[in-house]
UniProtKB/TrEMBL annotation:
<keyword id="KW-0520">NAD</keyword>
<protein>
    <submittedName>
        <fullName>NAD(P)/FAD-dependent oxidoreductase</fullName>
    </submittedName>
</protein>
<feature type="domain" description="FAD/NAD(P)-binding">
    <location>
        <begin position="8"/>
        <end position="334"/>
    </location>
</feature>
<keyword id="KW-0560">Oxidoreductase</keyword>
<dbReference type="Pfam" id="PF07992">
    <property type="entry name" value="Pyr_redox_2"/>
</dbReference>
<dbReference type="InterPro" id="IPR023753">
    <property type="entry name" value="FAD/NAD-binding_dom"/>
</dbReference>
<dbReference type="InterPro" id="IPR036188">
    <property type="entry name" value="FAD/NAD-bd_sf"/>
</dbReference>
<comment type="similarity">
    <text>Belongs to the NADH dehydrogenase family.</text>
</comment>
<keyword id="KW-0285">Flavoprotein</keyword>
<keyword id="KW-0274">FAD</keyword>
<dbReference type="InterPro" id="IPR045024">
    <property type="entry name" value="NDH-2"/>
</dbReference>
């Protein structure tokens, strides 16, 4: 059969949702039933929940980057690039390829899973000075940056500069921020043994959040346990506090404190990918409004899910509840959306997404953890076993499982050598640089391009 006559399914984004969707399409669709294309800037699926362990050096970057090409049923065409706009009327997705060529990719069915980017606010200096924790490059950069601060503090004789280099601020008391602060504090605590000129008492980690509690999803008792673990480790937790302004060498908190520091890590939530804004479709708090079947109302053949979409949470009793932006939901939505795409192709009935949350696991490094699987509150080693067991079993390939397990064992036995690679020493490493939030077309640019039949450009 001529490939041109086959329906074209375009999946945008190779994260938890996109990869699960593609894998199921590959398994369930006959080869001549449809062509599947995946638009992705990277050739791997990033296992984001383990990113704090990459930043702290417990895992190597490669172990959480799962190859997209390792699959027995692999037959998807991978288009290496990022979607920068989607014209839902013309059914065209505009893609900037990794060699900077802009191409139009027509489709019959599109599955939008571009995930989310770090949410920022209009705080002076924030985007210029804060680091994010959403990409592999950011995690690797932060690790190098933190070790750089130790190296520079060790080499310098100015007590003021030394103190500033040894203070670190993490904003965001959700699981991403809490795990990041906890894992990096362990890194500096262990690394300082190798720096005899540094007084360990000068190292200070701050974790702040505007909310009154850390990780409210954990419930009050478990949240307090997590806070207690952090306090015991010397992390200064400040709740009801945010950032007033950020500078290159100091951060001002909203409670008036001015903290001299060269390290501000911003993990205060996420917003849907800016790609969603190019569609001109309805959104719910920035996420694309979709039905429980993950279709976009009023647009045939358009599906969206994961962090980028507001998928109704039918397992909750409250009306208007949407699924939280978690990997747990994204993976399961990915499988369900593949079934619904196939049902649409075959003229069958679509089914809604329903999943009851399984709970939360929070790895604070070493033997410290809190977990709430299926509502059961766990602390310490049992919580850590559940946290690591859960992530390990959720890794998609056996090679990734082996790499992660080997890294954990190696780290437990041999520790870390705190090597500063210097690969990215001349990059600013700040939010905009790694998350490319300004790469998208405006709706007007998109219309002009598609109506003008631009085809390919650089
Ligand atoms: C530090 C951290 C810890 C976390 N811990 C947990 C946890 O313990 N448990 C949990 O359930 N969840 C956790 N999460 C949340 C979870 O990772 C996300 O909810 C999940 O990744 C969402 O899946 P997704 O497929 O929607 O997006 P992602 O997995 O982020 O995938 C989006 C993909 O789209 C690609 N992309 C982006 N823009 C474009 C574009 N324009 N064109 C093409 N491709 C694009 C990206 O490169 C990426 O591959 C954590 C998140 C972070 C940051």
């Amino acid at each position: 059969m001529n490939t041109v006559t086959r329906p074209r399914i375009l999946v945008v984004g190779a994260g938890f949702a996109g990869v699960e969707c593609v894998r199921r399409l590959e398994r369930k669709l006959a080869p001549d039933e449809a062509d599947v294309t995946l638009v992705t800037p990277f050739s791997y699926q990033l296992y984001l929940p383990l990113l704090p362990q990459v930043a702290s050096g417990v895992l190597t970057p490669q172990s959480v980057a799962l190859s997209l090409r390792r699959s027995k049923k692999y037959r998807t065409r991978i288009l290496p690039g990022a979607a920068i706009g989607v014209d839902l009327k013309a059914k065209v997705c505009v893609v900037r390829t990794i060699n900077d060529t802009v191409v139009d990719e027509p489709y019959d069915y599109i599955v939008l899973t571009p995930g989310s980017v770090t949410r920022t606010f209009d705080i002076p200096g924030l985007t210029e000075h804060a680091f994010g924790m959403k990409t592999l490059a950011e995690a690797a950069y932060i690790r190098d940056h933190v070790i750089t601060q130790l190296d520079l503090a060790d080499a310098c004789d100015d007590p003021v500069e030394r103190a500033a280099r040894l203070q670190f601020v993490v904003v965001g008391g959700g699981y991403a921020g809490t795990e990041t602060a906890a894992c990096l504090q362990r890194l500096t605590h262990a690394a300082v043994q190798r720096y005899p000129r540094i007084d360990p008492g000068l190292i200070k980690w701050h974790l702040i959040d505007i909310a009154p509690r850390l990780m409210p999803e954990l419930g009050e008792k478990l949240g307090r346990s997590a806070q207690e673990i952090l306090r015991r480790r010397g992390i200064d937790v400040s709740l009801g506090v945010s950032i007033e302004k950020a500078g290159a060498e100091e951060v001002t908190f909203t409670d008036g404190r001015v903290v001299p520091t060269h390290t501000l890590i911003w993990t205060a939530g996420v917003v849907a990918s800016p790609l969603i804004g190019t569609l001109g479709a309805e959104t719910v708090r920035g996420r694309l409004a979709v039905t429980a079947e993950m279709t976009v109302p009023g647009h045939d053949g358009v599906f969206a899910l994961g962090d980028a979409a507001a998928v109704p949470d039918l397992a909750k009793d409250e009306s208007g509840a949407v699924c939280p932006p978690t990997a747990q939901h994204a993976m399961r939505q990915g499988k369900k959306v593949a079934e619904n795409v196939i049902a649409t192709l075959r003229g069958e009935t679509l089914t809604p997404y329903v999943h009851r949350d399984l709970g939360l696991v929070v790895d604070l490094g070493g033997k410290d953890a809190v977990s709430k699987p299926l509502g059961v509150e766990l602390r310490g080693v049992p919580a850590q076993a559940v946290a690591r067991g859960y992530h390990w079993s959720a890794l998609r390939t056996n090679v990734a499982k082996t790499r992660v397990m080997t890294n954990w064992l190696l780290n437990a036995v041999g520790g870390d050598d705190f090597v500063r690679t210097g690969f990215q020493a001349h990059r600013s490493g700040r939010l905009k640089e790694f998350e490319h939030t300004d790469a998208y077309l405006t709706p007007e640019e998109l219309r002009a391009r598609v109506e003008g039949g631009a085809g390919e450009s650089s």
